[in-house]
Automatic annotation (TrEMBL):
Entry's transmembrane regions: 16-35, 55-76, 82-108, 115-135, 155-175, 182-203, 223-240, 247-271, 283-300
Protein name (database record): Probable magnesium transporter
Subcellular location: Cell membrane; Early endosome
GO MF terms, alphabetically ordered: magnesium ion transmembrane transporter activity
Job description of the protein: Acts as a Mg(2+) transporter. Can also transport other divalent cations such as Fe(2+), Sr(2+), Ba(2+), Mn(2+) and Co(2+) but to a much less extent than Mg(2+).
Pfam families (UniProt xref): Mg_trans_NIPA (PF05653)
Complex and partners: Homodimer.
Alphabetically ordered keywords of this record: Cell membrane, Endosome, Ion transport, Magnesium, Membrane, Transmembrane, Transmembrane helix, Transport
Membrane protein topology class: Multi-pass membrane protein
Organism annotation: Hibiscus trionum (Flower of an hour)
Record family assignment: Belongs to the NIPA (TC 2.A.7) family.
């Protein structure tokens, strides 16, 4: 109890609000996947399935409930960035994977493998580790302060480097390797996503201050951040859809989560200097928590195909046994035929 009391006293009220919003976001987003899938199945039973180009799900109320649930989750996630540092909020997105996997096991009767349960446990342990050692949120009084942080040499260099790499990927690598190399599309999404999260955080802070009585909408920086958010999100969604349409979702999701989260934490450390207010022990502990979450996420996605792999291996084993049986029968016939041929040859004068 004393440890919990010390932690609650040491954690700022803004971090607590951000934590609650981030967890709520994961709950809503994780549940939305299940509700939408139920809606898609129900719509597919009476119309053309979405997977083959149908849009009957647009008339299914259950699908819209799932969409509204997802929007609520995204709004909560947006608000979380206004209160807590990105190094706390972004990794907690893995909790939505746990919620989705658990509800799929209970509601959709989709089998959750033992390693999947272990992956959920690892995500919880990693998230708890990060929450317990997250840095306090920087106190910001106006959007002009955020603009000053965004225009410091360190973050300007990071932004210029990101833009240069993104342009090279889009105009050189996407036309040649986009359909064959998964890292091309995901690289664009993750790099642009790290900039979008910083802009989302700036916009969230501006709205938080505006609602508290300090109007930030009169500052041109607020609208500049809004323009950056819109541009980044459009680009991010465009190339994420390309990745999902081209490659297996079970492969895209964990790679995208790892790259997006890693680059977002890096951008936050550069722009908001989150680690300047922490000891080396706290930083190392946070990184260990992050690696634990990555391990759990990898296990969760890896176990999705275990049942299919088992079925395929069973089919291949059955085919192999059939081939061996056929070959064995042919060999027996060949052995039986040899003496008959010899007898025929002896009868010929």
């Amino acid at each position: 109890m004393s440890a919990v009391r010390r932690w609650s006293e040491g954690m700022s009220s803004d971090n607590v609000k951000g934590l609650v919003l981030a967890i709520s976001s994961s709950l809503f987003i994780g549940a939305s996947f299940i509700v939408k899938k139920k809606g898609l199945k129900k719509a597919g039973a009476s119309g053309v399935r979405a997977g083959v180009g149908g849009y009957s799900y647009l008339l299914e109320p259950l699908w819209w409930v799932g969409m509204i649930t997802m929007v609520v989750g995204e709004i909560a996630n947006f608000a979380a960035y206004a209160f807590a540092p990105a190094i706390l909020v972004t990794p907690l997105g893995a909790l939505s994977i746990i919620i989705s996997a658990a509800l799929a096991h209970i509601i959709l009767r989709e089998r959750l493998h033992t390693f999947g349960i272990l992956g959920c446990a690892l995500c919880v342990v990693g998230s708890t580790t990060i929450v317990l050692h997250a840095p306090p949120e920087r106190q910001i009084e106006s959007v002009a302060e955020v603009w000053a942080l965004a225009t410091e040499p360190g973050f300007l260099f990071y932004t210029a480097l990101v833009l240069a790499i993104v342009f090279i990927l889009i105009f050189h690598f996407v036309p040649q390797y986009g359909q064959t190399h998964i890292m091309v599309y995901i690289g664009v999404c993750s790099l642009v996503g790290s900039i979008s999260v910083m802009s989302v955080k700036a916009l969230g802070i501006a709205l938080k201050l505006t609602f508290s009585g300090m109007n930030q909408l009169v500052y041109p920086q607020t609208w500049a951040f809004t323009l950056v958010v819109a541009s980044c999100v459009i680009t991010q969604m465009n190339y994420l859809n390309k990745a999902l349409d081209t490659f297996n979702t079970a492969v895209v999701s964990p790679i995208y989560y790892v790259m997006f989260t890693s680059l977002t934490i890096l951008a936050s450390v550069i722009m908001f200097k989150d680690w300047d207010r922490q000891t080396p022990t706290q930083i190392i502990t946070e990184m260990c928590g992050f690696v634990t979450i990555l391990s759990g996420t990898f296990l969760l996605h890896k176990t999705k195909d275990m049942v299919d792999d088992y079925v395929q291996s069973g089919q291949s084993l059955s085919t192999s046994m059939s081939m061996r049986s056929l070959k064995h029968e042919e060999e027996e016939l060949l052995i039986e035929g040899i003496p008959l041929k010899r007898q025929d040859s002896l009868r010929i004068p």
